[in-house]
């Protein structure tokens, strides 16, 4: 009689996990049986509060500080998870930034470089390090990556932040290409494209009233919640999504 295959320990790293969609994903993933490493850049108190919620659900939690735009910090973050728990088997590339509303002819090079560094390069480097631990090519057990995109990738965000929209368009292409690259190595790669979601990212982008202004114009006539986006992310991480790779799910209320 053959020995049944052991299910890999569910170790999830959520970048930008201290607030909004990242925090909601960390908690919902814990409910689904994942141990969760919560990445944050500045707000350690918020990250620890999310970790406390994860632990209250009976799962392990750790917080790891890193700016995903800094390769050395990303390497240290993955090394910290390795040392405490072992290889990650799930990654949610959620960390991202927006900037103040501006036309393209008003955007500085510094703004553009920071946008690409966090939203694009950071996702690439985190995925690279996750693959070194998940992929069967590297002796890993397999795993799943979910990249956070945005409806802005389809809409373009003119007169607000075309740079942010373009960075998320890059994430859509990255998701598809990487999924096809590693599909034979036990790693699934998918994306989630949120629409108008009630989180504080709008305030950090200089539009604190954006949810109230745009929400009623969405076909479902309201903004979405971080929990609604997290539900899609955690489903894509799960075995229930075992035949899904290279796809990006819109969670946009029909927008």
Question: Which helices and strands, and how do they pair?
Answer:
Blueprint: E1 11-14, H1 20-31, E2 35-40, H2 44-56, E3 61-65, H3 71-84, E4 90-93, H4 109-134, E5 143-148, H5 152-155, H6 162-182, E6 187-194, H7 201-204, H8 210-214, H9 226-237, E7 248-251
Parallel strand pairs: 1-2, 1-4, 2-3, 4-5, 5-6, 6-7
Helix pairs in contact: 1-2, 1-9, 3-4, 4-6
Structure notes:
- This protein is an alpha/beta fold.
- The protein has a single domain (11-251), classed as Rossmann fold, CATH 3.40.50.720.
- The protein contains 9 helices and 7 strands; from the N terminus they run E-H-E-H-E-H-E-H-E-H-H-E-H-H-H-E.
- Strands 3-2-1-4-5-6-7 form a 7-stranded parallel beta sheet, sandwiched between helices.
- Helix 1 packs parallel to helix 2, helix 1 crosses helix 9 and helix 3 packs parallel to helix 4 (109-134).
- The longest helix is centred in the middle third of the chain and has 26 residues, at 109-134.
- Mean pLDDT is 94; it is low at 1-7.
Which class in CATH terms? Alpha Beta
User: What's the CATH architecture name?
Assistant: 3-Layer(aba) Sandwich
What is the helix tally?
9
Shape: globular
Total beta-strand segments: 7
Class of secondary structure makeup = alpha/beta
User: What is the name of the CATH topology?
Assistant: Rossmann fold
Give the full name of the CATH homologous superfamily: NAD(P)-binding Rossmann-like Domain
Poorly predicted runs of 5 or more residues: 1-7
Strand content: 5-15%
**Within the largest sheet, what's the order of strands?**
3-2-1-4-5-6-7
Tell me the radius of gyration.
Answer: 18 Å
N-to-C SSE string, H for helix and E for strand = EHEHEHEHEHHEHHHE
Taken together, the total number of domains comes to: 1
| Rounded average pLDDT | 94
What does the largest sheet look like?
Answer: 7 strands, parallel
Q: Residue share in helices?
A: 40-55%
Q: Roughly how many Å apart are the termini?
A: 53 Å
